[in-house]
Amino acid sequence: MARMSFGVFPSGTFRDFHSTRMFLLSQPRKIEEIKDFLLTARRKDAKSVKIKKNKDNVKFKVRCSRYLYTLVITDKEKAEKLKQSLPPGLAVKELK
Length: 96
Description:
Ribosomal_eL38_sf, structural constituent of ribosome, Large ribosomal subunit protein eL38, ribonucleoprotein
C-alpha cells in the first residue's frame, strides 16, 4: 500500500480535490417555493435577478454572495406577479 503524504489523495492531488469542492459549492441552488425565493431576493447579499422566459416555464435567478438561487415557474400569470413583487432596489435583467 502506497504511503499518502499531506495534500495528496488517492484520486489525485490536493488541488484536484479543492477544484472539485469549489465547483460543487458554486453550483446553483434550486428553490421550490415562491415565498422562499422572495425572502432570498430581499437578503442584503442579493445582487441581481435574471428572468429567463422559455416556452414552457419562466426561470428566476437571484445572485447572492455565495450561490445562484433558481426558481422555475410554469404558470405565466404567477411569474408576472412575482416579477412585480421583486424588491425595487434589486437590478432586474430579462433574458431571451
